[in-house]
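Journal club prep — side note

Before the paper discussion, L.F. wants everyone to see what a predicted structure for a comparable chain looks like in token form. Sequence:
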Amino acid sequence: MRALLAALALCATPAFGQPASIPRAPDGRPDLHGYWFSGFLTPLERPDGVTGLIVPPDGQAAMIEKLIAEQSEGEVYDPENDANPVPRALLEMDGALRSSWLIEPADGKLPLTTLAKAALERDGPKYDDPENRPAPERCIDGLVNAPMAASSLMIPLQIVQMPGVMVLAMEDMEPLRIVSLTDPPQRDALRSRGGQSRGRWEDDTFVIETDSLSISDPGGLTWRGGAFVTTDSRVIERFRLLSADLLLYRFTIEDPSLYKAPWLAEYVLKRIASPVYEYACHEGNYAMTNILTAARLDRQKKPKQKSATDIDN
């Protein structure tokens, strides 16, 4: 499986040329240190009805409207009263607009197994029980955990690069992820939400492998980076500087119970000056009462509407 994934990553490499000069750390490695931001609407999987990876320039507006409509389905959107305005932009890579992060398989869809589909249908997110609500929605499983999720909101990523260790911190829930470049894999490592991350350099590409995940969500699987992981998942991530201010991020997940074939996703992050601030998500759980009440009301039978005869009586 690993050999196949490595070959897939090489074959699917886009036409990004390695720049003649990129910032480097004192040890000569590419300098990833700093703040990075994604900020686009493009999702991991290609939207239904969209066949191609590349969005033609004359189709950009229609694609943006489609994605905004899907994100806000069932909601009333007031653009004049929005604390988190949605950027009207698609993922751009190598001068072309993308309809998905997924580049393999060619259809832009995760190759979920029959078992995974059944588990998702049976054990999908439930919001009417405080013990069964999914970890990301409960603000205890952040976007920085492997694989990292891109966000259309202003949620920056901070990378701190030091000899022997790389630290990833995102302005979202989970505080940080520590990636060791020197510690050997621990077969009996204690499981955690973030798992055990080990890093290495392959020429100018920084590679992270993460396993030993602990999943507390119902059904034993949870959402990560638009995909799904279980306690058996191994996540492989690759970081490569395309220029001083552009970082290529690629990832896949090894888990035969979830995926019936290898797949590969990628997107780019842009360097920014904005630092990472505290993210007080669900502080004090003040919203818990309303969330649970609404969820429980939603599953109750709707009251029978009175007929004209009942009203007259």
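L.F.'s comment for the group: The first strand starts at residue 34 and ends at 37. Keep this in mind when we get to the figures.
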